[in-house]
Amino acid sequence: NKIYCEVYEFDEKKIQLLKNANYNLEGRFEKHIFKNGRYYDSLFFGKRLALKIEFENPNLLLIDKLILIT
Fold first, then answer.
1. Mean pLDDT across the chain, nearest whole number?
2. How far is the CA of 18 from the CAs of 7, 25, 38, 70, in angstroms?
3. C-alpha span between 40 and 42 (Å, rounded)
4. Quick one: pLDDT at residue 67?
5. Residues in CB range of 3: below 8 A, 6 or more apart
6. Pairing state between β 24-35 and 38-48
């Protein structure tokens, strides 16, 4: 299982945050968006996750430290 994130090449703070969180650059769409008179690439980061299902409550899904209620 994997989680994905799309950021733009000019957003250096988000890129660094993803790298610090062990996300890997997995793809790039060149000249994907137009902003302030020029084109920028979209970067796609991904991270594999170990999913744990809480058996006492089958509607509770734990993903890393994120809890989702399904």
1. 79
2. 10, 9, 24, 25
3. 7
4. 42
5. 46, 47, 49, 63
6. antiparallel
